[in-house]
Design goal:
Length: 310
Amino acid sequence: MKVLVVTRSGKELLKGGIELNDSATVSDLQEAIHKRTKKYYPSRQRLTLPVQPGSKERPAVLNSKKSLKEYSDGNSNTLTVVFKDLGPQVSYRTLFFFEYLGPLVIYPIFHYLPVYRFFGYKEERVIHPVQTYACYYWCFHYFKRIMETFFVHRFSHATSPLSNVFRNCLYYWTFGAFIAYYVNHPLYTPVSELQWKIGFGFGLLCQLSNFYCHILLKNLRRPDGNGGYQIPHGFLFNIVTCANYTTEIYQWVGFNIATQTVAGYVFAVVAAGIMTNWALAKHRRLKKLFDGKDGKPKYPRRWVILPPFL
Ligand SMILES: NC(=O)c1ccc[n+]([C@@H]2O[C@H](COP(=O)([O-])OP(=O)(O)OC[C@H]3O[C@@H](n4cnc5c(N)ncnc54)[C@H](OP(=O)(O)O)[C@@H]3O)[C@@H](O)[C@H]2O)c1
């Protein structure tokens, strides 16, 4: 079979196309493109079928596991595919590792090192117990997230654009420094002991629940990440689609009850906004996938992220 690989502007990426045997898969084609171009490794490539000029249809992305024959209409021996360079890629584990490493390292610097001298506070700092517990709580949270990234999550998307590493690191590292600066500040006024104990106790319970939610999500997939999207069930997933985000938001509420800083609340609101958007999309996807037609189960009635509001 001959495959013509064209760019989105219609130019041939590889002069004369590529000859592959009839049983070749999309993955074989991607390997062949990589071999010829050297630059475009498979996860950098997005291959689609051409669409009619002026059509509003979204181009169908080729599935790397499928055979090329499935995409060539009838017995045609030539297939044209459209190539898009997705740019340099990194694995999801690399992306998550770097975004979580920043807050894990930056926060204790503010707690343990004399950084406030550089901000004009020359006197010895009095460290309140709540500030030390906040540091433990924070580090436990990000350490847990890194461990989950490597030992729990079963990602379906192989890679993410390298540019996301810079964007996400900017978000997590800046917020980490912003909150650490205020919670560890020499002029920080602690809340009552009862209040911070309730805050951390509640937050810790939510962190453990969040971990359990991630175990339930992990069990929906095979170890190689295959298995697609399933209906999550058990524990809080019986009432809310994104129980992992719900518990994530509440654990930040716990942290803020204990530490009471504007910076902490701003982060919680921004994070809740981001997760709400993602949760709405995940809820829609599951409702579409499990529509109750053709023998598929119907997605049960559930809250999206924050019962009883949404
Ligand atoms: N503070 C913040 O700003 C913030 C923001 C986002 C996340 N987080 C935390 O980081 C954690 C991970 O975030 P995330 O966005 O990666 O969470 P996520 O998309 O809900 O997924 C966690 C893992 O479960 C898989 N999964 C989700 N739904 C599934 C389903 N229905 N069937 C099968 N597998 C499913 C995902 O697969 P895919 O690889 O296919 O997605 C992913 O590998 C969150 O739970 C939260 O605790 C914090």
